[in-house]
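hey can u check if this looks right to u? its 395 residues, i copy pasted from the old doc so theres a chance i mangled smth
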Amino acid sequence: MTEKQPSQSSVSTPRILPKSLLYSIFARIGGPGLDTDSFEALRASYRGGFLGKAIAYDNRQREIPSRFIQSLRWHPVRLLSFLERPYYYGAKKKYLDRVASRHLDSSRYDFFHSWSGDCLETLRVAKKKRIPSLIEIPTWHRGSQKSEDRGQRTEDRQTWKSRFLLQPERFLEEYQLATLVVVLSEKAAESFRIAGFPDEKLFYLPRGVDIQRFKPGTRPPIFRAIFSGALIERKGIHHLLEAWHRLNLRNAELWLLGSVHDEAKPYLKKFGRENVRVLGFKRDLENYLNQGSVYIFPSRLEGSAKTIYEAAACGLPIITTREAGDVVRDGVEGIIVQPGDVDAIAAAIEHLSRHPEIVASMSTAARQRVVENFTWEHYRMRLLGAYERAIQMAR
């Protein structure tokens, strides 16, 4: 695997690139979240002159001509939209895979790029035709996750709808078939090593952030902590609320930005205070992050949380876990705590609330960290390096 903390100086322009890339993703091209990642990935191949075709569920950008993108927006799987999410999403992913596999089998593409869970049939075709392939892993090795984290149902596999589920075996076979497996953080890479996966098949590719959109703003006169993301236990919202409740800080407030899920409601009721503001999901997230003092994201399972990049770009010191990615270095851009350690979360919050000079120095370091290491330009150049690496491995 490449170096754990690559910097701008370590990035070089690769010499060996595909001639015609096939890309598929269970997302849209252009938009928030994973849609942004897909767009930036395609930018690398389009600007490099080797984008053959992208297959996705919609196209919401204008830079890349539509002739390069096959949108599945009006897909037949819509007829199954009455199914619960794991089944419906599984059916959509398998349909995407079927379309992509037919493209790869019938056309002269010389490289395939997709995401774990989206591409088993297509990877089988790539293996048969000896076409180099790359898959990205959104979180960790599938076998390392607890059953409740897998998004899988354990129902009888003989039921008619169970065939739409993405069973763990699917992911494990994809890992083996792909020429190169892309991980988003060192913690994710470790989960593959523990599972006995060969290190030479891993490639470290952290995400990027738009540093023109996300940038520091005017700091508030009070101590304002911010969390953004779905309000669910996996992201540690219950631990944050408990820690905040214990502290009972004066002249301070906590902003929660994201959709409130049912599992978070009991904790909001139990630990909520007047200085806890639930603001809901915000599309213009940058206009809230740049009003904060610190950012808190005590997640127990991520690949590399996009929101950490965004908060750092806005110059926020970050209290987070190693499970959320590698952007933050303990004591430099923020404070690293163990998942579920309410005492440590509370201590970190209190420490930063009492030391504005440390907040100021970490703020400067956080912004510098992303500007020098984690822009989308860094991401695209590293992705080209991944393509080159996979081609070399396939020879």
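Residues 2 and 25 are 24 Å apart (CA to CA).
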